Amino acid sequence: MMDMLKEKDRDLLQAIFNEMQILKKTFTQQNERRIGRAEFAKLLNIEPETLDARIRDGRYTKPHKDGRKSYWLSSYVQIVILDVDSNNKTTTQVVSLG
Fold first, then answer.
1. Measuring CA to CA, which residue among 30, 55, 33, 56 is closest to residue 44?
2. What tens digit of pLDDT does each residue of 38-80 get?
3. Are 32 and 74 in contact (CB under 8 A)?
4. CA 51 from chain center: how many Å?
5. How distant, in Å, are the alpha carbons of 24, 29, 81, 90 from that of 46?
6. Residues near 85 by Cβ (< 8 Å), separated by ≥ 6?
7. Contact call for residues 7 and 13 (beta carbons, < 8 A)
C-alpha cells in the first residue's frame, strides 16, 4: 500500500512539474519581444522578399500571427542570426534584441 501511495505522489508531482513547464514556456513567450518581417530581414541583412522566399523554402519558420500582424519571437530570431553568423564567419555585428 505504501508503494502505491508513493507512486501516486510521484505521478502527481510529475503532472505538476509538466504543467509548470507549460506555464513557464507560455509566460516567457508572452513577455518576449516580437520582431516583425522588416526588422527580421534587416537583422539578416537581406530584403524582406528574400526572407519570404526562405520561409517558403522551409529555411525559417513561418511567423506567429496576431490579427493582421506577423511576428517572430526574439529568441527565435537570435537563434537564426547566430546560425547565419556561424555559417558565414565574416559577420562581426553584435545584435541586441532586448
1. 55
2. 999 999 999 999 999 999 999 999 999 999 999 999 989 999 9
3. yes
4. 17
5. 33, 26, 12, 15
6. 91
7. no
